[in-house]
Amino acid sequence: RQRQMCIRDSLGEMPASFEPEALKAQAVAARTYTVKHREKHNGKLCTDSTCCQAYRTREELSEKWGSSADMYFDKLSGAVYATHGVILTYNGKPIEALFHSSSGGMTEDAANVFGGDAPYLKSVSSPGEEGFSRYSATVSFTRKQFANAVNAAIKGADISKNKLEEQVKILSKSESGRVTKLQLGSKTVTGRELRRALGLNSTAFTIEISPERVVVSTRGYGHGVGMSQYGAEAMAQHGADYKEILLHYYTGAEIETIDLGEIK
After folding, report:
1. Structure pTM?
2. Which of 66, 101, 105, 224 is 20 to 30 A from 136, comparing alpha carbons?
3. Angle at CA of residue 198, ends 196 and 200, nearest 5°
4. Per-residue pLDDT, 47
5. DSSP string, 209-236
6. CA–CA separation, 100 vs 153, rounded Å?
């Protein structure tokens, strides 16, 4: 029973109010991820969202959606069954179908985040996200708060609230606009390290230092690799079907239908 529900409930990672074609794209990405990783977990789906996929029971989803639960549950089930057995492959094998909430306008090349080369996880444009709430965000710190947060998370940085202008510098960005390296005092770190230190939405950030405060502005939400969920919604709103969405975000991948047995 859990296997039959896992793909549908992993759609809890995408707003159920999204367009049906966006939900179908998410269902295929989640199914592909499950197929690729089930051997690693002895045929079982890992439910740790920091490791694999978020899994939610019907009861948890009902608590989240309240009176709309039945409608949304049927909508998600429809996306799953409409794409039954459909997965993404590259050279005949299931791909690493990574996805994230919002790209901020352009997805990231997997090599810049996880290392290695995945030809189907290249940076692509993701237009139409600008109107969504997760497109951008701003976080403001006092100079002391910023210095304390950095020093606590990044050992050896030793930045001072009085010297931030000379101690904090962005050194490089990827083609998608995400910070790859920056200087923090005596340390050179990655954008991912500062994102973790400050709890930022993404590594597509800018830093503005004023006499009183440090303002960090971000675009997008998540690691930026693979399919942007809000980008998928934007494409669906403009008439794209789920196959068009998937082939846009997973460069060179193919769509196949396989016999999944119990997994649906």
Report:
1. 0.86
2. 66
3. 75
4. 42
5. E-SSEEEEEEESBS--BSEEHHHHHHHH
6. 24
Distance of CA 214 to CAs 39, 53, 146, 147, 211, Å? 46, 34, 7, 10, 9
pLDDT of residue 58: 64
Q: Which two tokens stand for residue 210?
A: 């004023």
Tokens of residue 240, six digits: 């794209």
CA distance 179 to 55: 31
CA max distance for the chain: 63
- 217-261: pLDDT as tens digits: 999 999 999 999 999 999 999 999 999 999 999 999 999 999 876
Q: What residue ranges of the chain have pLDDT lower than 50?
A: 1-5, 45-54, 264
119: Cα separation from own chain's centroid:
18
pLDDT at 56: 58
Between CA 101 and CA 18 the distance in angstroms is 12
Closest CA to 6 of 39, 16, 43, 15: 43
Which are the contacts of 12, defined by CB distance < 8 A and separation ≥ 6?
Answer: 54, 55, 56, 60, 61, 64, 76
Angle ∠(41,259,4) on CA atoms, nearest 5: 55
Q: Is 185 strand, coil or helix?
A: coil
Q: Strand order in 187-190's β-sheet?
A: 168-173, 179-184, 187-190
pLDDT of amino acid 256: 97
Do 103 and 228 meet the contact criterion of CB atoms below 8 Å apart? yes
Angle subtended at Cα 27 by Cα 1 and Cα 256, rounded to the nearest 5 degrees: 105
